[in-house]
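hi! just following up on the protien thing from before. the input was this:
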Amino acid sequence: MNAFIDAHHTQWGIEPICRVLHSAPSTYYAARTRPPSTRAMRDERLKAEITRIYQDNYSCYGARKIYRQLRREGHAVARCTVQRLMGELGIVGLVRGKTRRTTIAGAQTDRPADLVGRNFHAPVPNRLWVADLTYIRTWSGWVYAAFVIDVYSRMVVGWQIATHLRTDLALDALEMVLWRRGQEQSADLSELVHHSDRGVQYLAIRYTERLADTGAVASVGSRGDSYDNALAESFNGLFKAELIRRYGPWKNMGDVELATLEYLDWFNHRRLHTSCGNIPPAEYEAIHYRHQQAALTAAETR
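and the predicted 3d structure came back as:
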């Protein structure tokens, strides 16, 4: 009611409006001079925090993730309050768009078996990796991205951008993973399963031989079924929705490469992930290794 009076009092006057609304003018004046309530002041502080979190996370978080981040930062707030304040701010979470097939299926013969069976779970890091390709339209032509994801933490552990879909694109992403895991963790890959779709890039001799050199086993989904590589497809959808479609159009491969580098740093180290207990993938892996080291130390002291 007060908002209506504020909007129309210059046209009709305060007292005539109050008579029509069966309200005393003193009630309106008291409301205008009354200091903000404790709840109103808290709401304003929370709105500032919600806006900050939303903008700092590629403007893609919905109420659930903003609520989780607020709780991580020590704010005692209910999820329904976050939803209400987001509505008042006009903030909404990102909705994904459609996907498009980018890999070309290889021949049926001599194809590795599907060792995953749509069971995208891993007990420890470097036990199951999934890989896939996606595309980006730029003003200078199509650009393609290859990603390798560790299923345990959902961390993107390898990636590459190129203007072609040759085997080198996928192989360079794989080489990044092997270097990172070898340098950072001296990882044993003898129990690793590398899963992909039937793209010719992943069935190429150079790619499969490189996997074999590390002791990893290749796994390939069935033809024309995206569910067999659903986790990688899901990441591609996030990447396209949260970065590519939201911040385009893109001029060239260099712009896409720089933006992807920044996005993956955020995705791995700051983005909250439901499968990791609503913490970032890098933090999830760090907790695993701390527990592993603590267990080894305890066993040595016995």
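The mean pLDDT is 88.
Strands lie at 128-138, 141-150, 155-162, 193-196, 217-220.
cheers
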